[in-house]
Amino acid sequence: PSTVSINPFPAPHWEKYEFISLLGRGGMGAVYKARDRRLGRIVALKFIHGDDPGLIQRFQQEARAQARLQLSLIHI
After folding, report:
1. What pLDDT does residue 5 have?
2. Mean pLDDT throughout 30-55?
3. C-alpha angle 25-31-34 in degrees, rounded to nearest 5
4. How many CA atoms lie within 13 A of 9 on its CB side?
5. Burial environment of residue 34 by CB neighbours within 10 A (0 to 12, 13 to 18, 19 or more)
6. Burial of 29 (0-12, 13-18, 19+ CB in 10 A)
7. Would you put residue 60 in left (φ > 0), alpha (ψ -120 to 50) or beta?
8. Which of 7, 5, 4 minimizes the C-alpha distance to 22?
9. At CA 23, angle to CA 19 and CA 45, rounded to 5?
10. Nearest C-alpha neighbor of 24 from the set 42, 53, 47
11. At 75, is the pLDDT very low, low, confident or very high (cuts 50, 70, 90)?
12. Which among 23, 25, 22 has a CA at the least distance from the CA of 8?
């Protein structure tokens, strides 16, 4: 009997990141905990399901809001 190994990460051989674990799944996609190999820091990577234009737009809005939040925290 053969065993099939299923890698739970969407990009198992991504050089920039080392995937650590799945943080959660939702209607929009999945979020993974990973380590940025170049910077040596822990990050969260979000992958959205498919190529639905509505989901992509929501993802971009979320990313912009997060970037504004991070920028605000830096200037405090």
Report:
1. 46
2. 91
3. 145
4. 14
5. buried
6. middle
7. alpha
8. 7
9. 55
10. 47
11. low
12. 22
Tell me whether residue 1 is exposed, middle or buried, using C-beta atoms within 10 angstroms of its C-beta: 0 to 12, 13 to 18, 19 or more: exposed
| Strand ranges of the sheet holding 41-48, from the earlier edge strand across to the other edge | 17-25, 29-36, 41-48
Round to whole Å and give the CA distance between 49 and 55: 8
Read off the pLDDT of residues 2-32 as tens digits, 9 standing for 90 and up.
555 455 778 877 889 999 999 999 888 899 9
